[in-house]
Write a structure and sequence with these properties.
CW_Biosynth-Accessory; globular; 8-stranded mixed β-sheet; alpha/beta; Poly-gamma-glutamate synthesis protein (Capsule biosynthesis protein); Capsule_synth_CapA; 22% helix
Length: 386
């Protein structure tokens, strides 16, 4: 394993790691139609087993003044969701959200027309790449993000059900900032995954039963700045993030949950501005699906990466930016990844394309949308992840 340092640029260049050697995503074998006693026996058995430097154009970097304060809306209005027939659940996933620069305009509640797609899902998840705090001390890095709690209210109003804070900005304002973020999530009714007051909490999934399908949704980060590699992950007695640098604990949790649930893993991973997944991403995806994850989705690259289906599993390597200060080009290409699941895993997937305009994702229409969907599909073969 080798490490390549990166400088943060206008959309956040970070230090990341790659691991040589990769495997294709593999389908997992699921045990079905067991009696309750058999499930308990299996659960008990499972539990017991147990570089280079990139320059940044200063003209692209936004001013990092504190975003305007917008009053919280105590009773958000959420668009009614279309239901599938019993036994199926529609999941929706979108990429990075931080309410900085131009994207601070979304704090008023309009996060862009792509929010309509999130609202139609039974369960919608995004990556919250900012601390929700006005306190704490900025960590020793070039870019640090924080936002007011009205950001959570805006997400709720647009149908977001869960956010992951397991990423390389989750503790930009230290443990105080993280604790404030977790408290803000509780006050606003926004479940947060991938972080906690200790490791047990950080690796605890969001659990929910929808249309008779039991879901467990985990969050974890495989990307941390070098100074944070040992200080940001949660421990038995220290608040922090769920890290997959050593994936053993995450894999164990996925195995245990997969005995009775459909498991989703939301990962912060990969190499910034690289549209093809790294060997490390492919290896983690293979390990997670083998352990029992039905759906693996990721972010961090700030550009779109390919999606792949294998049997009853699905992996989307990179959802790009979403509510973000991207100013055009590949960084502004975004969308919503829809996944329909039942008790056996993935039934179908679809991509709804959008483009960031003024910090907010706006849906594409007509031939432009068709071209964007085709380009997304072409990534799969171009990157060799078929």
């Amino acid at each position: 394993m080798h490490q390549r340092p990166h400088l943060e640029g206008p959309i956040g260049w970070h230090r990341c790691q790659e691991l040589g050697g990769g495997r294709s995503v593999i389908d997992r074998h699921r045990v079905r139609n067991l009696t309750s006693a058999a499930v308990l026996i299996l659960a008990a058995a499972c539990s017991s087993s147990s570089g280079y430097v990139t320059s940044a154009d200063p003209a692209d970097a936004p001013a990092y003044a504190a975003p305007p304060r917008v009053p919280d809306v105590t009773k958000p209005t959420v668009t009614p969701r279309k239901k599938l027939h019993k036994g199926r659940v529609r999941l929706a996933f979108a990429g990075d959200v931080h309410f900085q620069g131009a994207s601070a305009s979304a704090l008023g509640g309009d996060i862009g027309s792509a929010g309509k797609i999130l609202s139609k899902a039974d369960l919608a998840v995004v990556n919250l790449e900012t601390a929700i705090t006005s306190g704490g001390t900025a960590e020793p890095k070039q870019y640090t993000f924080r936002s007011p709690s009205s950001g959570l209210t805006a997400l709720r109003r647009n149908g977001v059900d869960v956010v992951t804070v397991a990423n390389n900005h989750g503790m930009d304002y230290g443990r105080t900032g993280l604790e404030d973020t977790l408290k803000a999530g509780k006050r606003s009714g926004m479940p947060m995954i991938g972080a906690g007051l200790n490791a047990d909490q950080a690796f605890t999934p969001y659990r929910r039963t929808i249309h008779g399908v039991r879901l467990s949704v985990f969050g974890a980060t495989d990307v941390l700045d070098s100074f944070a590699t040992s200080s940001w992950p949660a421990t038995t007695s220290r608040p922090g993030l769920a890290s997959s640098k050593d994936p053993a604990r995450l894999l164990r949790a996925v195995r245990e949950a997969s005995l009775t649930d459909v498991v989703v893993v939301v990962l912060h991973w990969g190499v910034e501005r690289q549209s093809c997944p790294s060997a490390r991403q492919r290896e983690l995806a293979a390990s997670l699906t083998s352990a029992g994850a039905s759906v693996v989705v990721g972010s961090h690259a700030h550009v779109l990466e390919p999606a792949v289906r294998s049997g009853r599993t699905a992996v989307h390597y990179g959802l790009g930016n979403f509510v973000f200060y991207a100013r055009g080009g590949a960084g502004a290409e975004t969308g919503v990844y829809n996944v329909v699941v039942d008790r056996g895993g993935v039934v179908s997937t679809s991509w709804v394309p959008a483009r960031i305009n003024g910090g907010r994702p706006e849906l594409l229409r007509g031939s432009v949308a068709e071209a964007a969907v085709a380009a997304q599909k072409a990534l799969t073969s171009r990157c060799g992840v078929i």
